[in-house]
């Protein structure tokens, strides 16, 4: 499975001040598949996700031990270039967060900060990313309108397009549908299904049906520990651990 | 039948009616206090126009505004204020060239780069910079800055346009820093995360997402800074040389200039009441008031549009389209660049200007070869330098005053009246006079201001009347302090025939700090959660009972903070009391409210400008004044921080 693995964590621990939020998490994320992280609120699934592109650097008083290996390197090693890492591992947030700029500018922002100036090339990247995020037809006639005028679901797909525009290898999604209605959710889920042909997707969700629908692999977390992880069908139909079974059958959480 | 002991066995209709009456009268009282601000600003306008109108009648509005010579004491007096308007605008533009980049850099540093510990030092430091009285800045400018300029450029006197601009720039720093810092800090964290998650560097995130999002707030901050600079009197008057000429050539920053405010400050004290010259000065005040009101109102409009923009429904077209905004920005950048190049060649020796230009050119042509990490490093160094410069200015100023002032301080200095025109003896009457002035001012402003704020927050919904009141408060807030002085002279001293007296000074200062008291009280009342009020009202408490018992107690620290800030501000002001309340030398303390007093800021002003060989006592007076004002400000800042921490739990 090692050739097949894109990220692996090794005995990862994380503290927010006194709180031991992640406890010896070791897992492997398979390449070009969708991996879901599930578990009750506060179990550490979002924290784990934010470790993968070091977004936890923005939080004060965080201490991390153990390693996360990506591209044969520990991303928490002192010399890591965080900026390059985040270019390779993009992120989509819980609440859609388009910049207060036009739709075009939002998507072009990423390639621009990575040094692409040529207008024709930018146009091409913007169109390709928007098509890929299944939102092109809805916005192609109003590229210069403010992105804040889009609906919540459209904003979220725009944010996905924005992430795709820098051509990452991995896309992290932190409960991307929790602020959306069922129709918008269905569109995002279809999109995730299409994305796995080219990208590795890691999605955090509190919605078990969603995990079952979109993911190939699932990790179940509880109180900062990774209780069980494996093929989604297996986790949902024949969980090995009792905790997992209780959670999935709705006995707590 | 009654199983429960009754608390009140049904209020009789009589007491109900009387309590209703009480509620109504309380509301009326609060309404009156709130409406007071509107009355004051209308009176200011009325009296300035009344006394300014005759000159327009005589000279004609065009000749008054565009006339090129101001010579009111000549045999054939000339009343053209164009050189004064030019002076005001020139000094302000110069100040902004210097203050805007520095403050924005400092604001970015405080909100984005500084560690929490450095931030907790820097923020109060900039607030202290705001608290230092303008006459102290003027004094510092007179003894340090003008000397520096004189020796650097080898010119006969350092009292120049450049000195005025630098000093005003320093004084505008705190305003611009704190408002821009608020704007930058309130950019949602999600934008930052979104940009970083794409792999943008911190500097790219700051320059391309955060600062553009905060742009209208930064613009409003700049305009407020401009308003402050235009209305400033004492500091400008002490360092610009006050020659009512248009520099030759017109961009010669080393020429003396004279501003509108400076003219009022110098000439108002010596003019015969009712003469043409007197009316001309009121004409100047009207022009000054109109300019500052336009500037401040545009800042208020931008800020309120900003607030609306945040809550407006999505889909609304932005105020400016991206394309026009970019074009505007580009235009402004080129304009500023051209100005900077011009300034450089005038003010620096040619080789230094050439060096700077070469650096600029190297940057322009080399920037594509730099990696973005290098760009980030350069940007952060520059931003850090801006913060260091701001702190250094504060440090140099305080160091100069403390080092030279300490030797003057003695028991005698603090407890004796002055002798030999203030060269010897002490400043006791001035200290007491200042205390009298601020005590009276706050005793008048506090009830009025708190009442107005209670009316605005508790008793009304937003409507036409509140908008009128708020506009009144905003206008009052933007009125230059010298204009308060002129108004009070015309209305209290002359029209009411009270004369130059303690009470006139107290009222003038009270009117001036009223907007501050209203603002801070409003904010503090608004921070009390609605559920607390609902809880009390649901128990059957009346509105006034709810306000008195539930809303006011937790709001008290905030109100107190506002009051102390106002005291600090009132203690340092010179311009409003110069013609209404003070005398330079008095051996005795006033025995009634209708006698004039001595005051520290005025004493310092006279020692610094009119009494040669009084260097030691000048510094001593400046030190006592700074300690007093900074003391008030520190107490206010500490109080606020303490209760903010407590509120957060």
Please explain how this structure is put together.
The complex is a heterodimer of chains A (253) and B (649). Chain A is α/β, with parallel strands linked by helices. Chain A has helices at residues 45-52, 82-88, 103-113, 119-132, 136-139, 152-164, 182-195, 208-214, 232-237, 242-248; strands at 5-16, 19-30, 34-38, 62-70, 73-74, 89-92, 170-174, 200-204, 217-222, 225-231. In chain A, the strands form two sheets. A six-stranded mixed beta sheet of chain A has the order 6-7-8-3-9-10, with helices on both faces. In chain A, β4 (62-70) and β5 form a beta hairpin. In chain A, α6 packs parallel to α7 (182-195). The mean pLDDT of chain A is 90. With 649 residues, chain B is mainly α. Chain B folds into two domains: 50-403, MetI-like (MetI-like fold, Orthogonal Bundle); 409-649, MetI-like fold, CATH 1.10.3720. Helices cover 76% and strands 1% of the residues of chain B. Chain B has 25 helices and four strands. A two-stranded antiparallel sheet of chain B has the order 1-2. In chain B, a hairpin with a 4-residue loop joins β3 (418-419) and β4. Chain B starts with 12 loop residues before the first helix and ends with a helix. Mean pLDDT of chain B is 85; it is low at 310-319. The interface between A and B is medium-sized, with 36 and 29 residues.
CATH superfamily of the largest domain in chain B: MetI-like
* CATH fold title of the largest domain in chain B: MetI-like fold
Mean pLDDT of chain A: 90
The H-and-E topology of chain A, N to C, reads as: EEEHEEHEHHHHEHEHEEHH
Structural class of chain A: alpha/beta
Kindly name the structural category of chain B.
mainly alpha
Number of helices of chain B: 25
* Total beta-strand segments of chain B: 4
Strand content of chain A: 25-35%
Sequence stretches where pLDDT stays below 50 over 5 or more residues of chain B = 310-319
Strand order of the largest sheet of chain B: 1-2
């Amino acid at each position: 499975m090692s050739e097949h693995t894109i990220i692996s964590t090794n005995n990862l621990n994380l503290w927010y001040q006194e709180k031991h939020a992640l406890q010896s998490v070791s897992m492997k994320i398979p390449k070009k598949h969708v991996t879901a992280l599930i578990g009750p609120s506060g179990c550490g699934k979002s924290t784990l996700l934010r470790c993968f592109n070091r977004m936890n650097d923005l939080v004060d008083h965080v201490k991390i031990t153990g390693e996360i290996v990506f591209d044969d390197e520990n991303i928490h090693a002192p010399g890591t270039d965080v900026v390059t890492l985040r270019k390779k591992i993009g992120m989509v947030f819980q609440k859609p967060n388009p910049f207060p700029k036009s739709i075009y500018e939002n998507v072009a922002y990423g390639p621009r900060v990575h040094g692409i100036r040529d207008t024709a090339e930018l146009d091409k990247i913007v169109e390709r990313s928007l098509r890929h995020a299944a939102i092109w037809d809805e916005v192609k006639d109003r590229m210069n309108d403010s992105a804040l005028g889009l609906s919540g679901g459209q904003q979220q797909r725009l944010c996905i397009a924005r992430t795709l525009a820098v051509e990452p290898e991995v896309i992290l999604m932190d409960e991307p549908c929790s602020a959306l209605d069922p129709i918008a959710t269905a569109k995002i889920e279809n999109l995730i299904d299409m994305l796995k042909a080219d990208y590795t997707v890691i999605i955090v969700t509190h919605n078990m049906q969603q995990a079952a629908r979109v993911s190939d692999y699932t990790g179940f977390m509880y109180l900062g520990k990774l209780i069980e992880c494996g093929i989604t069908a297996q986790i949902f139909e024949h969980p090995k651990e009792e905790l997992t079974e209780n959670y999935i059958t709705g006995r707590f959480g | 039948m009654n199983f429960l002991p009754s608390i009140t066995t049904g209020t009789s209709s009589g007491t109900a009616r009387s309590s209703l009456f009480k509620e109504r009268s309380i509301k009326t009282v609060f309404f009156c206090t709130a409406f007071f601000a509107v009355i004051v600003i209308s009176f200011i306008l009325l009296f300035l126009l009344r006394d300014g109108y005759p000159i327009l009648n005589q000279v004609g509005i065009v000749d008054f505004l565009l006339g090129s010579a101001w010579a009111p004491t000549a045999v054939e007096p000339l009343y053209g204020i164009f050189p004064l308007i030019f002076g005001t605008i020139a000094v302000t533009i110069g100040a902004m060239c210097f203050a805007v980049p520095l403050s924005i850099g400092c604001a970015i540093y405080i909100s984005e780069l500084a560690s929490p510990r450095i931030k907790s030092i820097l923020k109060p430091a900039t607030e202290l910079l705001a608290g230092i009285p303008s006459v102290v800045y003027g004094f510092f400018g007179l003894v340090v800055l003008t000397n520096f300029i004189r020796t650097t450029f080898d010119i006969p006197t350092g009292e120049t346009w450049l000195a005025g601009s630098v000093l005003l720039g320093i004084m505008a720093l705190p305003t611009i820093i704190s408002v821009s810092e608020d704007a930058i800090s309130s950019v949602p964290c999600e934008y930052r995360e979104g940009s970083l998650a794409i792999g943008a560097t911190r500097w790219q995130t700051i320059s391309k997402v955060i600062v553009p999002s905060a742009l209208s707030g930064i613009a409003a901050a700049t305009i407020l800074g401009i308003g402050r600079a235009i209305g400033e009197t004492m500091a400008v008057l002490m360092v610009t040389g006050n020659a009512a000429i248009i520099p030759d050539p017109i961009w010669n920053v080393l020429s003396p200039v004279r501003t509108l405010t400076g003219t009022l400050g110098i000439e108002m004290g010596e003019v015969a009441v009712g003469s043409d010259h007197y009316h001309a000065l009121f004409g100047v005040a009207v022009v000054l008031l109109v300019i500052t009101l336009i500037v401040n109102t545009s800042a208020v409009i931008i800020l309120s549009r900003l607030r609306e923009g945040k809550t407006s429904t999505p889909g609304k077209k932005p105020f400016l389209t991206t394309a026009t905004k970019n074009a505007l920005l580009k235009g402004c950048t080129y304009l500023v660049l051209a100005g900077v190049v011009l300034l450089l060649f005038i003010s620096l020796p040619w080789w230094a200007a050439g060096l700077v230009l070469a650096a600029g050119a190297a940057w322009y042509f080399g920037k594509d070869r730099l990696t973005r990490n290098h760009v980030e490093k350069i940007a952060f160094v520059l931003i850090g330098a801006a913060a260091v410069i701001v702190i250094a200015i504060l440090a140099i100023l305080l160091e100069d005053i403390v080092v030279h002032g300490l030797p003057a301080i003695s028991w005698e200095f603090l407890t004796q009246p002055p002798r030999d025109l203030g060269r010897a003896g002490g400043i006791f009457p001035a200290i007491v006079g200042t205390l009298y002035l601020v005590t009276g001012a706050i005793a008048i402003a506090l009830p009025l201001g708190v009442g107005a704020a209670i009316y605005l927050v508790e008793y009304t919904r937003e409507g036409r009347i509140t908008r009128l009141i708020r506009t009144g408060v905003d206008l009052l807030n933007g009125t230059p302090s010298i204009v308060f002085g002129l108004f009070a002279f015309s209305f209290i001293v002359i029209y009411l025939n009270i004369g130059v007296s303690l009470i006139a000074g107290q009222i003038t200062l009270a009117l001036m700090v009223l907007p501050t008291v209203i603002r801070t009280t409003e904010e503090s009342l608004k921070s009390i959660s609605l559920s607390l009020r609902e809880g009390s009202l649901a128990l059957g408490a009346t509105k006034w009972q709810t306000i008195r018992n539930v809303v006011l107690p937790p709001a008290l620290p905030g109100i107190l903070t506002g009051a102390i800030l106002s005291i600090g501000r009132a203690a340092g002001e010179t311009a409003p009391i110069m013609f209404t309340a003070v005398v330079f030398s008095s051996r005795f303390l006033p025995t009634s409210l209708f006698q004039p007093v001595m005051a520290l800021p005025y004493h310092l002003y006279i020692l610094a400008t009119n009494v040669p060989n009084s260097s030691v006592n000048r510094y001593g007076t400046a030190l006592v004044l700074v300690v007093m004002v900074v003391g008030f400000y520190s107490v206010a800042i500490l109080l606020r921080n303490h209760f903010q921490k407590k509120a957060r739990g």
